[in-house]
Every structure is written in C-alpha cells, then in structure tokens.
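hey so i finaly got around to running the thing on Glutamyl-tRNA reductase from Legionella erythra. pasting the sequence first so u can double check i didnt mess up the copy paste, my clipboard has been acting weird all day
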Amino acid sequence: MKRLHCISLSHKNYDIQVRSRFSMSPEQYSLALHELCELGTVNEACILNTCNRFEIVCIVSDPGIVYSWLSLRTKTSLEELLNYFVDLSGIDALKHIMRVVAGLEAKIYGEKNINGQVKQAFLEAKKNNLIGHTLETIYAYSFQVSKAIQNHIALPMSSITQCFFHELEAQYTDHYNKNYLFIGTGKLVKEVLTNLIPYQPNQIVVASHNPERVCDELKQIATVIHIDDITPHLFNVDVIFSATNTNQPILKDRDYCEFNPNRKVYIADASLPRSFDSSIRQYPNVNYFDVDDLASVSEEENRSKYGDLDQYLDGLINREVISLQQILDKSYMSKIIEPQREVLKNYLDNVISQTLNDVDFKANPEKHVKKLTKELSGTMMHLCTILLRHCCKDNDMKTISDLRALIERHNNNYLLTKKVNDR
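ok and heres what it spat out for the 3d tokens, dont ask me to read them lol
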C-alpha cells in the first residue's frame, strides 16, 4: 500500500489553461504508456487523461522517478511539476481513485462519463503490460463501488450533454430550427447529436480531421466537412459544439470575422485544449462556454442537492476503502508469507526426515528426539526473538500480545493433554 501513488493535477487546483499543458493526444498517450513501461522501476501504472484531470496512478518505490520522467516528457521543471501536481499515497490514493471512478471528483458532480474514461485508460495500460495484480484489484473493486454509488445519485445535471442543452434553452427563447456546427466525431458529439432531434435542427454540419472515416450514421443526418473548411460555415451558424483533440486552437481571432455580427452564436467548447482561442470572448454576439463554464452550469443546478449526498457517499467510500485495503493487504502478505512458509516447511521436513532416517535412531531414539527438540526449539526461539525486536522497534504491542496469547494457548493445550494422559 505504501508504494501506491496517485500523482494528480485536476480542475480542483488549476484552471483549463494549466491543464491543457499536460493534455495528451492519442498518439502521445500511447507513447507515454510505452515509456512508463520501459522505465523498469515502475511496477504498474495507469494514466488518466481527461478534460478535468491528468493523473498517473502507479506502484513505485520512489515517485520521484515518475516526476523526472514527466519533467522530461513535458519540458517542465521539477519545481513547477511539484507545484502543479499533488502526490497522494496509500489509503489516500485508494480513496481518491474510488471517488474519481464514481464521478465524485468530477467538475460535474456525479458525472457518469468518467467511469468509461477510466475503463478505457485501464484497458490501454493493460495493453501496454502496465497492469498487475494490485491495480487490477483496485480498479475492479472501484468499478463495482461506482456502480453502487451511481444508484444513489439522482442529480438534475450530471453530464456535459445535459449542461449543453440546459444552456441552449437559456440562450434562446426559441431554440428550434437552429443551424448547428459540430467539431469532432467522438462519443460526446454523438451523444449530443442523439439528443438533438427534439430541437428540430435546421442544418447540421460536422467537421472532422478525417471526413472519409466518419460513419454512415453521421453522414445521413449531417453535412460532413474537413476541419480546415470550417470558416465558410460560420456566417450562418447559431450553435457550435466542439469536442475534439487538438494541440492548439482550431479557430483563432482571424477566423471570427466570418461570424454574422447580427446573429447570436452559442458556443460550447468541451475540447481540451480549447478549440477557440481566448479572443472569442470579446465578440458581443458570441456566448462562449469552455468545459469549466459548462460544468459551472451543473454546479449551480446541483449545489443545493448534493451537499448532504456527498457527505453520505463519502462515508460509503470510506467503508469500501477499508474493505479494499484489507483485500490488498491480505493479497500482499500472502505473496510474502506463503513462500516463507514453504521454506520453513521444507526445513522441518528435512530435520525430521534426517532424524528418523539416522542409522542410530532405532537403537537410541531418546537421544535423537532430544537432539531434534533442541534444534526445533532453538529455531523457534530465534524466530520469535527476531519478530519481537521488530515489534519493539515499531511499538507494535498488538503483535506482541497476539504472539503471547498463541504461546499460552498451545501451552494450555499441552498441559491439558498431559493431565488426561496422566490419568
């Protein structure tokens, strides 16, 4: 448990601009996993890369190794990284992982999409041979807890999609027959499109980095264009929803003159880094929401309802963390104890076998039994002394008490058996 670390940067400590610095494209993500695997000193690891957070969960003796790797990869000084990232370890890391998987650490409280994102991160890490028994156990248990927790959450707004439509209705008194532009073709865009039908869209345009790969389902309901061909469509657009992965803004100040100045435009930018540069906020006819702005819509709606709920769910998480810790401790101890028990068993078998097979045993069994007793009692005293020294060093009075109780129990059993035999 001491070697479990969660090195985390999230919306709780830094804004979207800082988080964007550490966001990875799919290609960078795969390479990062490969590099972690090559480090050797990192036993297990999983990287979670979302719009809300960048986290590395790992089993490592020295987290400084991961910081050094991240410093080289992101061209960021160690001092800066230590300011940006929080290093949670042991039981604190366990609790954090469980809360993240359940959506309780999300910007949109109770968000369900994070569960799928963590599962995807877990599978990618597994594909790169970075998941061992410990992280396998932690995530499997956390996914079960998340499922139970989601049954307790009934919040009015727990996804980016819900926030988008809530703000759409707030922006327009008449929100029907609008012209929509979608940037990206991922899961989030498809989710919004699926819920768009009741709003009777007049026109839907979908911009993609790879238009030829867009599925037929999207092509049937939208005009599909290349992402470089967006500007001609800006003049007639009413609503833009962006959820794509890019290293720099897709639209910049020079493109914004293409908007119709007499037309109100609502932009929901769920991309990280953002698809629009910051100058978009200067245009009076444009209402721009980045992913943090959208999440704030959820916070306002949910604040009055999730205060008591979070306290209840945090108690539930604490109980589950203790259970998981016991499972991990038992598993870890088994890996350490079982081989040592096998060594001890072999030693006992060898000593007893050697005694019984001695050519002189039948002629003088009492002598050999005394010799065997001396050998075994000496070994037992030596083992107990080593254990007691460590207990004293760690001030572990419970183990000393347990050891004493065990010896007394065996001694009482021996005395009882002796009485019965004497009769």
